[in-house]
Structures are given as C-alpha cells and as structure tokens.
Amino acid sequence: MAKKRVVFYTDDSFAQDTHHGMIYNVARITEGEPGYEITGGYSTPEAAAENARRMNVIKGNTEDDVQEVKISSMAAGKVNP
C-alpha cells in the first residue's frame, strides 16, 4: 500500500473572525481522507500562505500534489464543519 500524501493549504475559507481580529488558518489534508486538520493560525493571509508553501516544500509537494490531494479529500466525503 502506497503512503498517503499529506499537503498543507490555506485560502479565505479557513479564516476565522475572533475577538482578537482575523486568524488565517492552514489546513493539513491527507490524501483520500475526508476533512482536514487545522495546523496553526496566523495574523495575515500572507503568513498563512507562506507557512503552507514552506511545509509543502519540506514534504516535497508540488502545486499539482496539493490540488490532487484536496480533490481526493473532497471526493472521500464531507469536510469538517
């Protein structure tokens, strides 16, 4: 059995409006598994995007990998509320 890919992703849908201001989250998504885990919150969308990019580079993920894993997660079932 092949090892499942894990990617990191962020966009506006992961932002949260809190009493301290906006928090921009990064999601950890596992290939073929529904949903995601929040791995951290950042004060700007740029910081969240840079963290996601850096983690994907460390894991050896390309942009194509990120898109493929996101799609496989959506196809596997519902997303976390």
Structure, described:
The protein is an alpha+beta fold and 81 residues long. It has one domain (6-75). The chain is 36% helix and 30% strand. It has helices spanning 45-59, 63-76; strands spanning 6-9, 15-18, 21-30, 37-42. Strands 1, 2, 3 and 4 form a 4-stranded antiparallel β-sheet that branches. A hairpin with a 6-residue loop joins strand 3 and strand 4 (37-42). The longest helix is centred in the middle third of the chain and has 15 residues, at 45-59.
How many structural domains in the coordinates? Answer: 1
Integer average pLDDT: 92
Order of helices and strands: EEEEHH
* Count of β-strands: 4
Percent in strands: 25-35%
Number of helices: 2
Helix amount: 25-40%
- Taking the alpha carbons of the first and last residues, their distance comes to 30 Å
Shape estimate? globular
